[in-house]
Amino acid sequence: MRKNIHSEAMDQYFDAILNLKTREECYSFFKDICTVNEMLSLSQRFDVGVRLLKGETYQEISEVTGASTATISRVNRLLSDENDGIEVAASRLGIQVD
């Protein structure tokens, strides 16, 4: 069962992210609230998600990103939910997915 993440604190957190204007502001903000490993994990999961949407195999993704097959499988499982967040973000960045 999934936890409900919708809350006032989460809304405020997302609003803060949406108000960042530059990549440097993003680096500064996330360095304040995440460890380096957490930031690298989030960026790796986004990369894995984009590659899955492009139709790359687990093996290809693992070789390029260094992600474990467990991580790739977890991201793939989340992509199969009704959410389309990675696809929307990739599209807005001009990344072509299948």
3D structure, described in words:
Helices cover 68% and strands 0% of the residues. It has 98 residues and is mainly alpha-helical. Helix 3 (36-53) runs antiparallel to helix 4 and helix 3 (36-53) crosses helix 5. The chain is globular, with a radius of gyration of 15 Å. The two termini are 29 Å apart. The mean pLDDT is 94.
Quick synopsis:
This protein is mostly helical and 98 residues long. It contains 6 helices and no strands. The protein has helices spanning 8-18, 23-33, 36-53, 58-65, 69-79, 85-92.
Shape: globular
| Sheet with most strands | none
Class based on secondary structure composition and strand pairing: mainly alpha
Annotation, overall tally of beta strands: 0
Beta-strand portion reads under 5%
Q: Order of SSEs, N→C?
A: HHHHHH
State the end-to-end CA separation: 29 Å
- Helices, by number, come to 6
